[in-house]
Specification:
The protein has 216 residues and is mostly helical. The protein has 9 helices and no strands. The protein is 33% helix and 0% strand. It is globular, with a radius of gyration of 21 Å. The structure holds heme C (HEC) (5 copies). The site of one heme C has 21 residues, from helix 2, helix 4 and helix 5.
Length: 216
Amino acid sequence: MIGSLRILALVVATAFWAQPPFQTSTTPAGSGSTAPAPASNQNAGKSESPNTATMPPASNPAAQYTAENPAPAPLEGPVQPIPFSHKQHAGTLQLPCEFCHTPSRTGETVKIPQAAMCMQCHETMATNDPGVQKLASYAKDNKTIPWVRVYELPSFVSFSHKRHLKAGATCQQCHGPVAERVQLYQESDISMTGCMNCHRAKNASIGCNTCHMIDQ
Ligand code: HEC
Ligand code: HEC
Ligand code: HEC
Ligand code: HEC
Ligand code: HEC
């Protein structure tokens, strides 16, 4: 059984490596991810998209766009239940990433914050903003905010944040310039090729068992 699994894995691996080895990092990765691929521009025109805030309030806003006043480019990435901006919080306010993304109990993963944490500030700040009002209602009803995942590996891949951060990797290396983003999208490659490229460059192990527990 183990032997046939290994053969199957090698056959698939051969097929895998027969593909062009270097995907450009500009293509949002996500092939093979179990999460719904975050199609770019998926949010175009949806009312929850934060960029609609910059549109002129007219019955036919498109009519007002000219060469000098072009329509804002649609944001990439999944529309989140609350239009949360990293640019505002990690950029302008310079909150450290770890302020919100505390490690899980084991440290292997980092957490996405929930409403109670945000309300430390938003009990009193920007309380007229529709996004903050939505946030406050999640907090009041003690409901979980259903954040849509941007980076998510299939369950058969082992990955530890702790291990990589200890080895000196930075958030930006794997997630891009997050503090400049109004909305996050998968802009760096977390496919097998993406992992392998860095493992080769840093002399980290690339044996199949490093990331897949084939022999167990
Ligand atoms: C350390 C304080 C602080 C924390 C923690 C914080 N915010 Fe904010 N937030 C602010 C400030 C300051 C603004 C800007 C207010 C303004 O421009 O009037 C803001 C603005 C916002 C806005 C308005 C839209 C925008 O980007 O200007 C939303 C929505 C928002 N925050 C959501 C959240 C959510 C969700 C969380 C938790 C994940 C959170 N905030 C955590 C301080 C904070
Ligand atoms: C004020 C709180 C706050 C701060 C500060 C913050 N984040 Fe976030 N982060 C969030 C929230 C809320 C989400 C979920 C919504 C989203 O994806 O935009 C999130 C999502 C993410 C995700 C996507 C995770 C996934 O798979 O869905 C990454 C990556 C991330 N943050 C990285 C960072 C980095 C890097 C920094 C520092 C430069 C940072 N964050 C600072 C609140 C914060
Ligand atoms: C070596 C690459 C790498 C580095 C460095 C890295 N991440 Fe990640 N991050 C990932 C991958 C891959 C995932 C998806 C993990 C999964 O689905 O099991 C992820 C997931 C996340 C998530 C979602 C976690 C969840 O389970 O909901 C957040 C938030 C996040 N990263 C923030 C950060 C922050 C903040 C830093 C810097 C302190 C950071 N990451 C550093 C690769 C990295
Ligand atoms: C920025 C470079 C970089 C990226 C990108 C990266 N890694 Fe790593 N990874 C490393 C380094 C360096 C080590 C060695 C850390 C150590 O020695 O403790 C490592 C170690 C590991 C380990 C532990 C290896 C062991 O010997 O136990 C696993 C598992 C792993 N990485 C999985 C992944 C996966 C899965 C991805 C893609 C989603 C990934 N890595 C992306 C640099 C990277
Ligand atoms: C550094 C981490 C890492 C190493 C080493 C690694 N893989 Fe992967 N592998 C991944 C990740 C991440 C995925 C998730 C698929 C994706 O998104 O491309 C994956 C996916 C796969 C898949 C599923 C392919 C698909 O398209 O869904 C197979 C099969 C596989 N790996 C086999 C192997 C074999 C065989 C080896 C040894 C030659 C190996 N892997 C080494 C990280 C790794």
